[in-house]
Amino acid sequence: MASRKHITIGVSIVFVYLAVTNLNITLHSNEVAKEQPPAAASPTTRSAFNTYNPNAQWCPLAVCRNSPVCQPCRRRFLLLISTGRSGSTSLMRMLNMLPGVRMGGENFNHLRAIRTMVEHFPRGGIYNNVSGPFQHEEIAPATLACPAQHAIETIVPPPLRDQEIGFDDSDTIIGFKTIRFFDDDGTMDSVIADEKIPIDFVRKYFPCSRVIVNIRSNTIAQGNSNWFSHRKNSTGVLDDMNKRLVRAASRFGPMAHLLRMEEWTDKMSGAAELNELVRWLGFENCTYNQVLHDHKDSSFGRDQTEIFLGPHCRFVGVHFDPDGALALAPEPVRETVTLHASNYSQFTIPRKFSATDSSVYFVASESNVGPMVKVWWGKNGFEGDILSVPLVASGCKGRGKKVVAKMTGMQTDGNIKNERWQMNAARSAVNRNHSLSVGLRRSLLNQWLDDPKIEGCTFKSPVPIQIEARRWHDPDAEALLGKLVLNFVVY
């Protein structure tokens, strides 16, 4: 059962939506308070179009493309992908015992129906038609993640009693189990030809997800069960499905955890396997002392064993690195960029980023700072991306003057020719070290440089800007490699 929050709300202004102030939240002991992003306003505050992740303790490597219409990482999801007669129902029930988690059961591959819904609209070149018979305003990237997620929220709702009292369910981790993840027509007899399609769909439209992949190695016993005994070559079908599921766990990367039924159902060590899973999910002081066994002896019976996880069981969050190992969240790289107004030389950030068999690209965390979308190849030389950096003058007659400096953002991979190209562009999958380079643009774009009142001024950024380094190529395309937190000083 999800822990409840008691909320006191004072309403101050009403326009089309309610502007809410004086929001006092008392959290239950097993909940983690989440930082709330500031509202978008001036160039010194967060843009409404940004990559802020409000649930980094659950999905630290997620790509969150936020807009005023949709924030795709606000809801945390948990998927359990398995095969029939592999203990998935028992696993689902045991996951439901964790505080703040609500798992639903089978839904006949509802993800496939959602995929059909959200991917139907972009067809025919009408995705961003701003005129003509299909006209509408431009749809921001990742906006369709919200109707996809809402479809799951609708079929895995909170209890009616919680709905009646207005219980805030937004912090609950929700999900479901499915033995039909690769089904192509709603049945288990038809398997999708390209198994990457449903995997990439989850990664794109449910970016703040964790995935548990569960298989049963003894496919002979599994195939002889009542569920599969009537199927032809059931063992061969299950062997093929297990291979697909293992590949799926690999393609999901660090967001997935692979389980084998024979290990977590072992009478001596099975509970320890599940306790390791719980730690991977980010819970502490949660200990299973035994394992449930639903549907025992080919029945649909329910195990009535009571399991108590401990009085201090709670979610604290964990972070994993791109190799899948549990680790502390990497500290952002903080750097002061010093530039001179009298020349236009570049400042290259010392920190280098690399990715095995992949190119690297850099994007801004906010749209009012710089590009948030990657491109292939891009422009050469000093025709880089334009960064907009707020600065405030000090130490002169014009102190307090606010300007937005236009800067060139480029990258270099440290090769012999010292080539440079635009920061958000990726190129060949050669293992090289990529660095970000920035510099002031000429006064044609920075007319404030010609203002005589700024003579002797030192300009500093009132707030740092964030630049993300990401991986281009599969596997784990768009994976976050690190963040640069940059403060600027212009003399």
How is this structure best described in words?
Helix 2 packs antiparallel against helix 3. With 491 residues, this protein is α/β, with parallel strands linked by helices. Helices cover 17% and strands 25% of the residues. Strands 12, 13, 14, 16, 17, 18, 20, 21, 22 and 23 form a 10-stranded mixed sheet that branches. The protein has a 5-stranded parallel sheet with strand order 4-5-3-6-7, sandwiched between helices. Mean pLDDT is 84; it is low at 1-44 and 324-329.
Topology:
Blueprint: E1 6-14, E2 18-26, E3 77-81, H1 88-95, E4 101-104, H2 110-120, H3 145-155, H4 160-164, E5 173-178, H5 196-205, E6 209-215, H6 219-223, H7 234-252, E7 256-260, H8 261-264, H9 270-281, E8 283-284, E9 314-315, E10 319-320, E11 326-327, E12 333-339, E13 347-348, E14 360-364, E15 375-376, E16 385-394, E17 402-412, E18 421-422, E19 425-426, E20 435-440, E21 458-460, E22 465-471, E23 480-490
Parallel strand pairs: 3-5, 3-6, 4-5, 6-7, 12-23, 15-19
Antiparallel strand pairs: 1-2, 8-9, 10-11, 13-20, 14-22, 16-17, 16-21, 17-18, 17-20, 21-23, 22-23
